[in-house]
Amino acid sequence: MNFDVIVVGGGHAGVEAAHAAAVMGCKTLLCTLNFKAISRMSCNPSIGGSAKGIVVREIDALGGIMGLAADYKYLQMKMLNTGKGPGVQCLRTQSDRNIYPGRIQEILLQTSNLEIHEGMVTSLLYDDEKVFGVVMGDGAHIKSKAVVITTGTYMEAQILRGLEKISSGPDGEKASVGLSKSLEDMGLEIYRLKTGTPPRIRTSSIDFSKASVQYGTNGKLAFSYTTDEYVPFDQQMICHLIYTSPETHQIIKDNLDSSAQFNGQIRGVGPRYCPSIEGKITTFFDKPRHQLFLEPETKEGDSIYIQGFATSMPCEVQEKMVRSLPGFEHAEIIKYGYAIEYDAIVPTQFDATLRVKKYQGLYGAGQICGTSGYEEAAGLGLIAGINAVLAIRKQEPFILKRNESYIGVMIDDLITKGAVEPYRLLSSRAEYRLLLRHDNADLRLTDYGYKFGLIHQERYTSFKIKNENLEKALSILKTTYLGTNKKVNNYLIKEGYTPLKGGTLAFDLLKRPDIKYSNLIELIPQLRGFDLNDTGIMQLEIMVKYEGYIAKQEKEAKSFAKFDSLLLPEDLDYLHVDGLALEARQKLQTIRPCTIGQASRVGGVNPSDISVLVLTLKRRGLI
User: Fold this and answer.
1) Which residues pair with 143 in a beta bridge?
2) Segment 563-576, tens digit of pLDDT
3) What is the CA radius of gyration of the chain?
4) pLDDT above 80 for 128
5) How far apart are CA 548 and CA 290, in angstroms?
6) C-alpha distance from residue 237 to each of 46, 78, 297 (Å)
7) 540 Cβ contact list (under 8 Å, min separation 6)
């Protein structure tokens, strides 16, 4: 059997990589240990969140499928950070852990050029320069032009609770065995990471009267720009909020030596921004309580996920911990929490296309690249799949810049700075986050998706019409002079707004925080001559109200862009560049940045080192 692209692993990264490669016209094989586990939500049954929700919109704008599945029969949809600026607002959905993976599986089965095979990949087919296939556990050799590894938390995975340590993937699935050793034999540096999950509780055994209700957001909210069906607000499920009790903290403190995290069982480094509950209590010892969100896992089932309560305590200790929580006095544990360790590839070994630098045809995506989270994995999978196809076709690679997307920020961080712990996207990681908003992912990325054939013509035409209407509306606002129009002032007074005292452009009037586009439609007849959809209206209002801030960030991005356009020679021997500090020589030689801009973001490289590199390029006549 021969394929163009083979994707190893059916998690959130693997499905995006496989779907993209197949839709782009390549004969694609997705190898997974269990078809029913494809896109399974082994941890939190949710999609989106801070920064992550924007990534899902970026995936959708590029033609990926995570947003489509997240919009399908969700349990609750919520817009976060509504009290803050648009640069940090984003969506989060409480998903049904049965329906979400089922929807992804349906999409994959309907995708042309895609074949799905159940089986374990134990090694790769390769020579000194390239990878050209995989070896299955049964000894079968399957050849391809590119391989994308997306093994998630399965590679040499071990489940840990207390002193118990078993070879297993998440949810009792088989671990991926053998591939990690093969990658090491190929000269790649492998390291150990760790994550964890909390216990699941039978819903009917919880007294929710001791918890505060957490509703979603009422409105037509969706990750995908194509979604037009929404779960009515009154049919959405509610979440709840509780806090740990002093008894909870005491039980954990008394049993720390029983936790796999503290008894020497765990070697891998866990995620800083999603620590275990025992990690929180020891790190933040001065805090009397920690918040826990109670999230339903499925509409048809009877299971609650305790967000913020991940643990690797023995089962008998988990019983005590759970029943010390308010409302959980008679709680029944359906599934105990656990820590999971797994192997990953040190991410500085990848280039900006997510290809392993040492080998042509070998790509990685998801947690094998040192990330954590469904959304991060899906974003990387999509980029790896696209670049695998472009490389096969000998076309220019697809590299997103830091001012274009959160996905670009994430990839640049991983390959430039590495990740000693599972990397999690945060809005604070993006220096241009006002440019990388929830609302404008389509403006930033849809042209790319269309170029690669991942956005169909009908959708692209609709996108272009929306943009044309957006430009028309902006033009009208910028050229309509309201003066001291009596009708306008009467309207403003009636609505409780301050009347105009002098001539004002409609554009400037919309800058007022209490004026909306819908108000101006009533006052300016020209704005009624065409339709502007909800997304377009949101984009217009943000572009107008935050015009000055957006212009400032665009100027900053442009000034830094020149450094990312200065290419560094692939054969540059940093160890022998005169003038570079010793630490800079070592770091640059290891990471081998592509541009001066990337070099400036390498840890240990100072402005004086960048000046030396610029001078080196000038001496070589490259600038």
Assistant:
1) 2, 133
2) 888 999 989 999 99
3) 26
4) yes
5) 39
6) 13, 11, 10
7) 470, 473, 474, 517, 532
* Each residue's pLDDT tens digit, 215-248: 999 999 999 999 999 999 999 999 999 999 999 9
Tokens describing residue 221: 């909210």
Segment 443-458 mean pLDDT: 98
Separation between Cα atoms, residue 448 and residue 446, nearest integer Å: 5
Q: Are 21 and 163 in contact (CB under 8 A)?
A: no
Q: Do 304 and 332 contact (CB within 8 A), yes or no?
A: no
Q: How far apart are CA 263 and CA 241, in angstroms?
A: 31
pLDDT on residue 623: 85
> pLDDT tens digit string along 23-32?
999 999 999 9
Q: In one letter, which amino acid is 231?
A: V
3-class secondary structure, 235: helix
As given in the structure block, the two tokens for residue 163 are 């002193």
Instruction: Kindly give the residue spans of alpha helices, DSSP state H, lying in 440-494.
Output: 441-451, 457-479, 486-494
Q: At what angle do helices 457-479 and 441-451 cross, to 10 degrees?
A: 140
| pTM (whole model) above 0.90 | yes
Mapped to the 3 state alphabet, what secondary structure does 575-611 carry? HHCCCCCHHHHHHHHHHCCCEHHHHHCCCCCCHHHHH
Residue 147 pairs in a beta bridge with: 6, 362
Average the pLDDT over each of 33-37, 66-70, 299-303 and give the range with the smallest value.
299-303
Q: Which of 71, 74, 102 is nearest to 298 (CA)?
A: 74
DSSP state of 428: G
Q: Which residues contact 466 (CB under 8 A, 6 or more apart)?
A: 532, 533, 535, 536
Residue 11 has pLDDT above 80, yes or no: yes
Structural domains of the chain, ranges and CATH numbers in brackets: 2-195+342-427 (3.50.50.60), 200-339 (2.40.30.260), 457-550 (1.10.10.1800), 565-619 (1.10.150.570)
The span from the CA of 323 to the CA of 321, in Å, is: 6
